[in-house]
UniProtKB/TrEMBL annotation:
Residues 48-306 form the Periplasmic binding protein domain. Its main location: other. InterPro entries: Bact_Solute-Bind_Prot2, Peripla_BP_I, RhaS, SBP_2_dom. It comes from the Bacteria. It is found in: Cell envelope. Coiled coil: none annotated. This is Rhamnose ABC transporter substrate-binding protein. PROSITE patterns: PROKAR_LIPOPROTEIN (PS51257). The keyword Lyase does not apply. Pfam families: Peripla_BP_4 (PF13407). The gene is rhaS. It comes from Dactylosporangium salmoneum.
Amino acid sequence: MRAKVLAAAVAAALAFSMAACADDSGTTSSDASAGTGGGGSIKSGLKVAFLPKQVNNPYFDTSDNKGGKVAVEEFKGTYSETGPSEASPSAQVSYINTLSQQGANVIAVSANDKDAICGALNEARQAGAKVVTYDSDTKPECRDLFINQATSEGIAKVQVKLISDAIGPDGGEIAILSATANATNQNAWIEMMKTELAKPEYSKLKLVDTVYGDDDDQKSFQEAQGLLAKHPNLKGIISPTTVGVAAAGRYLSGSTYKGKVQLTGLGTPNQMKAYVKDGTVKAFALWNPADLGYLAAYAGAALASGVIKGKEGEKFTAGKLGEFTVGKDGTVLLGDPFTFNASNVDQFNF
């Protein structure tokens, strides 16, 4: 099944083209039987709401509208997306309350803070909603399942290796440009990157700073600019956020640091291909965000239909992605990150 996920990533251009067609037409070739699991099948008519960290973010536009929406249409549910325009710890609370009052069967949320939305989520669960976190988790007791795009260790390893390869054997000072200071996923990845950097093979890399762009394009641009002003000997930046890495790429590509300060992170091909082609970025990584949203929708529907309860060891089928198993602490793993570079970036369109 993992091979299928990776194959889907390698063939993402085709997969996203198909997803876009389904998104535009409102129909797909799949039916409710695609969600059949060990304990039954997906109910039709489920109300599935996606609540990203912020709306109008290219990453969540892809995960929600080209992934989650496609899945919901496949099992004949009703899809919606709502959320704040800025990523802040408590901004999602009022949206959760509204979705609960509207009778959402499934709330799929990417948490801006692991604690701040717990009260609202548990109230929604008590009212009957199934809560699935994706991309960024809450505390386990605040949701039913977490759809993890990749392990923190896997993400950390690929980010550190990419920046090390880009800088070269002499190493040097590096910095991290993150999203919000409270983002659960970002903080987990940063801690694992620090662990990875402590290994002997990375002894010549020195992490000198971590800054936060709050997943805001202009602030991320300014933070990248500030890093170079504060650390004139900086050799590389890791930005594990699609907004941050694109903003840093834009700054570096138009500056005297282009080609001298290396950049990698988690970005989408459409955001990053110009910077790969002009030499600002040698390589970057990501998973297929549409698959992440697609899996989150099916997981929520499986919960709401009674196919699974969210217990470790349970299995369910997520349409075209195949069968998944619930792991420890109610976590479902999508797969491993995929590396994009000059040899393959033109093959993708998302």
